[in-house]
Amino acid sequence: MQTAELGQARVRVWFGLICASYIVARWAGLGQAPLPDQSAIHLLAFTALSTAYAAIVFWIVKRFPVDRVGRKFCTLLIDMFVLTYTMAIGGEPMMLIYALLVGVIIGNGMRYGVLYMAAAAILAQVSLSTLALLSPFWRANPELVFTFSITAIVLPSTALALLRQTAKARDAALEAMQVKSRFLAQASHDLRQPIHAIGYYLGNLRESTTKAEREGIIDRIDRALDSVSGLFKSLLDVAQLDSGTIAARPEPTRLGPLLAEIVQQNEQSAHWHDVRLRLVPTTAEVMVDPVLLSTMIQNLVSNAIKHARGSSVLIGVRRTGQTVSIEVHDQGIGIEEAHLPHIFTEFYRAHMAGDRDVGGVGLGLNIVDRLARLCGMRLELQSRRGVGTVVRIALIPRTSVALDTAAAAPQPTGTPLSGMRIILIEDDQDVLEGVSALMARWGCQIQPFLTIPATTELADLIIADYDLGNGQLGIAAIHQIRSAHNRPIPAFLMTGHSSSDVEQLAAREGVELLTKPVHPAQLRSMLATLRLSQRDQVQGLDPLQDLPPPVGAITAHQG
């Protein structure tokens, strides 16, 4: 506040110098109505005194920087008196001083706040009323007084509105900075923990002597990497939501296969956390964007597993008229009632002192809430500390479009990958070698390339990174290979970008988009699904014809 008061004092000195210069100019004959000698001398003497006073106030504020309300109101009163007196003595030639009066009103408001602006605006009306009563010139021009009076109200009101908007923007910026600081602190912790653990695991791995010991350590490393992968996935989702590039593309979707796939993807995580993950089968068919809905459910299931260590998580569907709700029940630690109003806030974590650290930066529920609203749905949460939590994605519209049961049913992912021919294009040597070695262990035949290859052998699948360096793109590599073999070879495009342009490009080219980091289990599942579908096309068989039909949907909370 001392800086603001010092700035106002400095402006006051400049006002005095400008006013004196203007008086001299009008005295010298500037303008149609020259300033009389007597009035000019009088005003110059008065301006000299007021400028000296302004200089003294500047020194006092600089010497005694403590904020004093009385001092600010006192200087405001004297400012208004000086300007009123100058306009009264000078008459028509000194009308320009009114601009300084408006400057005093707005300057006090901008520097000190709404109360001071209101006080200055009231004093301005008193000043103009005094001029209309005591000054012959102003008394003879009531229209001018009225115009100046309206201006002294309108301009400060506009400035006040801008001041409030500025204050809101400042508060929002401060809150954003605080949120960013909390996020960086938590993200730093969540990144350090698994990386710190991986360092020790690698040390233990070098000294391990038995196969069982090595497998246990590798399992822990995989778990730590899964934690880091989840953090990056959340950050990518938030970046896409903030950029406004996500758009819902609803289509008829069968919930049974979608939920079964999510359960399968989370089985390993549930095993790590000693959680019994259960799905109530459903035949519900809805009109949704399956990608966005999968992201929402994946976040809810992952969150439930982390907080339900040693208990169970149940996923099911509840029908309500023309809509359905997808519910995730867990028997975890639950959420304290005080946290519930803030639970969907970005970077908010409902952590109590003494709670086990489960990781995460407080983005999961915020992402689901934002995606649900984007899709016209609603996210609901009920929780009791020590009992558990129920999270519900409600208002999912049912569809009347008949779906092909065989085509929509989930494909088993246990099909061997032995002999599957894959062209892998990745410009990072370490990633290329790592992915190639992993898929080779699965039985795949890999053709690895660091750049777009000139020639390749025929393959069952192309996996290409989006950016290949030196201006080369993975989509161009896919085009070139398909053209060389004159057939639409299936392709996966891997990327770390969150741009909707990449998503639209992949969809337009009929290419499956994989967002880095890609978990090995996810990649293997996708390869197995593709492998099975290719065999079915060749053999003309329906691999699911002997599976039992789905049973009824969930109607109440079970277990």
Q: Would you write up a description of this structure?
A:
The protein folds into three domains: 2-140, no CATH class; 249-408, 2-Layer Sandwich (Heat Shock Protein 90); 421-539, Response regulator (Rossmann fold, 3-Layer(aba) Sandwich), CATH 3.40.50.2300. It has 16 helices and 14 strands. It has helices at 2-27, 37-63, 69-90, 97-112, 114-134, 136-139, 142-207, 211-243, 255-272, 290-307, 364-374, 405-408, 429-441, 474-485, 500-508, 520-539, and strands spanning 251-254, 276-279, 285-288, 312-320, 323-330, 378-384, 388-397, 421-425, 445-449, 461-465, 467-469, 472-473, 491-495, 512-515. The longest helix has 66 residues, at 142-207. The chain starts with a helix and ends in a 20-residue tail after the last helix. A hairpin with a 3-residue loop joins strand 6 (378-384) and strand 7. The strands form four sheets. A five-stranded mixed sheet has the order 2-4-5-7-6. A five-stranded parallel sheet has the order 9-8-10-13-14, sandwiched between helices. A two-stranded antiparallel ribbon has the order 1-3. By secondary structure, it is an alpha/beta fold. Residues 405-415 and 539-559 have low confidence and may be disordered.
